[in-house]
Design a protein that fits this description.
single chain; alpha+beta; Elongation Factor Tu (Ef-tu), domain 3; OB fold (Dihydrolipoamide Acetyltransferase, E2P); six-stranded antiparallel beta barrel; 6 helices; 30 strands; 30% strand
Length: 513
């Protein structure tokens, strides 16, 4: 039995191995033949844009919230009950200069003025009385002096007769001596009173000046019972009502001056070097003449509203956020808003978040390329045409290193005339070499696994396709040739059903992989 079992297992193993060998032979015999391809390797097609010199003066754009240039709190200088208020004194209302805002009960302050005036009249009368007393005492002193001289003469005669001729008596001499002393006492008393008159006048005059000062305070308090609008204002808040008692030195309203508003536009500090020289000098407190105008824009429901302002100062550098705040003043903020899109447009108001386009110094001979043309290590891929190409569309890839001087949306400034002599540039930017030359074709289409020297081909396409594919700045998109690119100002070109951008650089050809 054991021998039979081994025989059967051996036969089965031979059958299995034979079947596997037969299947392998069949698969090898029936494999498909490789297709013979005669097509050459495909050359990547690219989209390029010419680096054409231009005058680059894109403004430096900052953002900030509208705030008042001057805002005042109405603080009563006197206490009392409010008897009257302006009919339009409510938040958001506009009130003209000189109009009565508040009136406090005047009766208490009027009575104080009357009382002080009465005291002043009494003191003025006392001064006149002192003057009259001085005249009277002067006359009495003269009379007393004459009487003293007479009594002194009688005393001396009586004393001489008694001493020399023994005429009279000692009692008579003493009587004339007493009369002389009495007359002398009268003179001394009048002289003392007369010497006191200037002191009394000075005392009364001091009291009079004090009461006059009190009268000025009383009249000022009476005047302060009426609070007038200091200038054309917008009411921000009111915390008092008629019949309410207000306390001195406690604010009851907040008013905003309508002469001008401000925006502290937040900028990248590195962008300050590009601002117009007059604007930058004015920000630093220098005056180089009329400042350039700044366009302040507020957008609502897709509609743009703009006002004109000018730079007044550089408020601060914030080291925490690495930002700079340049203050833009907007005169006459309630004037007409420049907008052709909306007939009934809102006025500029506090709290609006606006953009401020500060003019930049124009740069001649500037090379500005799309951001999509710049790759790692600040390299730009350039299409260099092959002179031997029949149609001029074949070439190869070369690289150019460029300095990134300024980025504006989807465009990057890499070169301009006089860059090496510009004292406002940091040394690393002023001395960096720009290998990209005017007229070279920068590649802006995606190019994976790019290698210097690789063969490239410009794709034949319409000018509309080339324009539509150029990348730009504002985050709006246009589609061309199956690719999606962002673009700034959109309009429809002839024969196109989708919006495409209009750009300042010169497109040469469009292409996709």
């Amino acid at each position: 039995m054991e021998r039979l079992r081994r025989l059967i297992l051996g036969v089965l193993a031979l059958v299995i191995v034979g079947a596997a060998a037969t299947a392998m032979v069949w698969l090898i015999a029936t494999r498909p033949a490789p297709s013979a391809s005669t097509e050459p390797p495909r050359i990547p097609e690219v989209l390029v844009v010419e680096a054409a010199p231009e005058v680059f003066d894109a403004p430096v754009v900052g953002h900030g919230t509208v705030r008042p240039k001057r805002q005042v709190k109405i603080i009563p200088q006197v206490s009392g009950m409010l008897t009257d208020m302006h009919a339009s004194l409510a938040e958001g209302r506009v009130i003209e200069q000189g109009e009565l805002l508040f009136e406090i009960d005047r009766r208490t302050y009027e009575s104080q003025v009357v009382q002080v005036k009465a005291d002043i009249k009494i003191l003025e009368a006392q001064l006149r009385r002192h003057e009259q007393e001085e005249k009277s005492l002067t006359e009495r002193l003269g009379t007393a002096g004459e009487q003293f001289k007479i009594t002194e003469s009688e005393y001396l005669d009586t004393k001489r007769l008694y001493d020399e001729e023994n005429v009279g008596s000692p009692q008579e001499v003493d009587r004339y001596r007493l009369k002389k002393l009495q007359a002398e006492d009268v003179v001394l008393g009048l002289e003392s009173q007369l010497h006191l008159i200037p002191i009394l006048e000075e005392e009364t005059q001091a009291r009079l000046e004090a009461r006059r000062a009190q009268l000025a305070d009383a009249e000022r308090n009476l005047e302060n019972t009426r609070i007038y609008c200091p200038f054309d204002v917008r009411v921000e808040s009111v915390t008092a009502q008629t019949s309410q008692v207000v306390i001195a030195n406690l604010a009851i309203a907040t008013l905003t001056d309508l002469a001008a508003f401000e925006i502290a536009a937040v900028l990248d500090p590195s962008d300050l070097q590009w601002t117009h020289r007059k604007a930058y000098a004015r920000a630093l407190g220098k005056d180089l003449g009329d400042p350039p105008t700044v366009t302040v824009t507020w957008t609502l429901n897709g509609h743009r509203h703009s006002w004109t302002g000018y730079v007044t100062r550089l408020e601060r550098h914030d080291e925490t956020t690495r930002t700079a705040r340049m203050v833009v003043e907007i005169p006459d903020p309630l004037g007409d808003v420049r907008s052709e899109e909306v007939p009934d447009q809102p006025q500029l108001s506090l709290g609006m978040f606006c953009s401020a386009a500060i003019p930049a110094e124009p740069l001649d001979g500037a090379l500005v390329i799309p951001r999509s043309a710049i790759h790692e290590d600040d390299l730009v891929y350039v299409f260099e045409p092959d002179p031997s190409s029949r149609d001029g569309r074949t070439g190869w890839l070369v690289t150019r290193r460029v300095p990134l001087l300024r980025s504006v949306g989807g465009r990057v400034l890499v070169e301009y005339a006089g860059r090496g002599e510009d004292q406002h540039l940091p040394p690393q930017h002023a001395q960096a070499e720009c290998e990209l030359r005017p007229g070279e074709l920068a590649i802006i289409s995606p190019l994976p696994r790019a290698v210097a020297g690789m063969k490239l081909r410009l794709r034949a396409g319409s000018t509309a396709e080339a324009i539509a594919a150029v990348a730009s700045s504002d985050g709006v998109f246009a589609r061309a040739g199956g690719l999606l690119f962002d673009s700034p100002n959109l309009e429809l070109l002839d024969g196109w059903s989708e919006p495409v951008p209009r750009l300042s650089f010169s497109p040469v050809a469009a292409g996709t992989r």
